[in-house]
Amino acid sequence: MNLYKIAVVPGDGIGKEIVPEGIRILDKVGEIENFKLDYTFFPWGAEHYMESGEFMPANGLVQLKPFDAIYFGAIGNPNVDDTLPAIRYTFRVRKGFQQYVNYRPVKFIPGVPSPLHGKDANEIDYVIVRENTEGEFSETGNFVNPDTPEGFAIQTSIFTRKGIERIAHYAFKLAKQRKGLVTNVTKSNTLIHSLVYWDSIVEEVRKLYPDVKYEKMYVDAASANMVLKPERFDVIVTTNMIGDILSDLGAATMGSLGLGPSGNINPEKEYPSMFEPIHGSAPDIAGKSIANPISAIWSGALMLQHIGEIDAAHRIEKSIFKVLRDGLLPFDLGGTAKTTEITNAILNSL
Predict the structure, then answer these.
(1) Which of 45, 100, 134, 261 would you call most buried, defined as having the most Cβ atoms within 10 angstroms of its Cβ?
(2) pTM of structure
(3) Helix runs in the chain, H state only
(4) What are the residues whose beta carbons fall under 8 Å from the beta carbon of 315, sequence distance 6 or more?
(5) Mind giving me the DSSP string for 45-73?
(6) CA of 145: how far to CAs of 113, 149, 157, 239, 309, in Å?
(7) 231 in Cβ contact with 124 (< 8 Å)
(8) How far apart are CA 120 and CA 42, in angstroms?
(9) Domains in the chain, start-ordered, CATH in brackets?
(10) DSSP line for 308-343
(11) What is the spatial order of strands in the sheet that 101-107 belongs to?
């Protein structure tokens, strides 16, 4: 029996509700597929910051490094500066562990009310591969005399050859396993230095994958096509900020951000990867037992896929789709099923 060490960071708000639901699914599928997950819990996040003055300890990465993966909920609290969670936790983990791939699948699910009427769910299945450690979220900049009439701010994007090459290679390799199309979503017609450089390196990498179709698309056109013609996409590769925005749009076209899973992946497995829902801590619904647990459960499936339990990951995904197709819907999809009811149904379907 395979045994995996999993660091669990439920975080704040609904993270504390949906992560335990995900663990119920992970434990059950482990029984079925004959593996075991050994969890260690960490109380880090915005509420921990309010109590201790830190989102995670100074040696937090040292504590996390021995694990096979990190299962993360959500982070943030209305009483804490909302610029801090990313800087003090999320970016520290993503950059410290070279989780340079942000992996966000978009699949239309039969039975789920989507704002895109008349689309064939069987045809819409793509992945947004977002560069996750540099680009527009490089934290390089400053304020200069901000309170004066002449005050200004500078924010510098950083695009390195290494960073672009490795995310491009990941996207093309992934496309070879899927439908064989990479769409480079860019804005190089106006960002004439950073994204012209991005495009040029993506196109260099492209030449190494002659069996993969390739297209370049500006982000405004891509946004429109994600709504009007989402079936045309397979693997979208894009920058940190563009990918952050487009992946929320993709989840919204599925029906709700409560469905969207994600992985912050270090493909070489030199460091643990981190798996989390794409939504936030949603303090407005925390404690009401109405949070949709599917994003956390599906993120758990991505985690199992990454550590090598492929059959278990597929079993979870199929069970999620069956429950939704059969009409049991959480509140964010217009239904009345509470958090544990959704989990119970997926458990039964496993």
Answers:
(1) 45
(2) 0.95
(3) 15-33, 46-52, 60-64, 84-85, 91-96, 161-177, 194-206, 219-228, 240-254, 294-307, 310-325, 339-349
(4) 29, 32, 33, 350
(5) SHHHHHHHS-SS-TTHHHHHTTSSEEEEE
(6) 49, 8, 21, 30, 54
(7) yes
(8) 42
(9) 1-113+258-350 (3.40.718.10), 134-254 (3.40.50.2300)
(10) T-HHHHHHHHHHHHHHHHTT--BGGGT--B-HHHHH
(11) 35-41, 2-11, 69-74, 273-277, 261-265, 101-107, 125-131, 235-238, 181-186, 213-218
pLDDT at 23: 98
119 pLDDT higher than 80: no
Q: For residue 339, what are its two tokens?
A: 């958090």
Structure tokens given for 217: 């698309």
- DSSP SS3 for 192: coil
The percent of residues above 70 in pLDDT, for the chain, comes to 99
Whether the Cβ atoms of residue 37 and residue 4 lie closer than 8 Å to each other: yes
Residue 121 pLDDT grade (very low, low, confident, very high; cuts 50, 70, 90): low
Give the type of residue at 243: G
Handedness of CA 326, 328, 330, 332 (dihedral sign): positive
DSSP letter for 161, please.
H
**CA–CA gap between residue 158 and residue 190 (Å, rounded):** 16
Nearest to 343 by CA among 4, 41, 9, 26: 26
What is the crossing angle of helices 294-307 and 15-33, to 10°? Answer: 40
Least confident window among 114-118, 188-192, 279-283, 336-340: 114-118
According to DSSP, the β-strands at 273-277 and 261-265 are: antiparallel
CA–CA distances in Å: residue 129 to residues 218, 306, 348: 16, 15, 32
